[in-house]
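Propose amino acids for all 162 sites.
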């Protein structure tokens, strides 16, 4: 896990360290399918995926890509941060053998009384820079020398622009 992020040290436009996964092989996809009990053959049966479904190859599971996104934002927020919301869209397929890079950039910040909110643009790109999974996340970060973000996290009902 990365060092703790504090709201005081975050700025709009800040790039987060990329999380790189891969190259993702057949065993990765099979194990994830088994773990998630996702038995759609497009994730582990190449012949079915290519001949029956006319896909280019085995597909990387959407839930695996989802997990990569959440891992990146949680790791960046640190132990004292809280991932409040994450949303994304699956806009392109990723195939077995690809290396995926999860990226994030600070879109906006908002200072509240007890902690700060950080909105991130994020996504997943392959080695060619093709975006497959654009999205957004909202994190709550503690202030440096402040109290921890409350646990359990209770989302603010009204926010003010700082």
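Proposal:
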């Amino acid at each position: 896990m990365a060092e703790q992020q504090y709201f005081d040290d975050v700025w709009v436009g800040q790039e987060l360290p990329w999380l790189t996964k891969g190259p993702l092989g057949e065993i990765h996809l099979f194990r994830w399918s088994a773990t998630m009990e996702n038995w759609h053959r497009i994730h582990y049966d190449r012949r079915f995926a290519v001949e029956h479904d006319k896909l280019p190859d085995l597909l990387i599971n959407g839930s695996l890509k989802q997990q990569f996104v959440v891992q990146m934002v949680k790791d960046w927020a640190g132990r004292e941060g809280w991932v409040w919301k994450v949303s994304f869209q699956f806009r392109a397929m990723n195939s077995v053998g690809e290396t995926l890079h999860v990226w994030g950039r600070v879109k906006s910040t908002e200072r509240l009384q007890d902690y700060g909110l950080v909105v991130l643009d994020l996504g997943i790109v392959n080695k060619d820079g093709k975006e497959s999974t654009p999205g957004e996340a909202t994190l709550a970060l503690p202030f440096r020398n402040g109290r921890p973000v409350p646990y359990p996290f209770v989302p603010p009902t009204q926010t003010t622009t700082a």
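The longest helix spans residues 62-77. The helical segments are 26-36, 46-52, 62-77.
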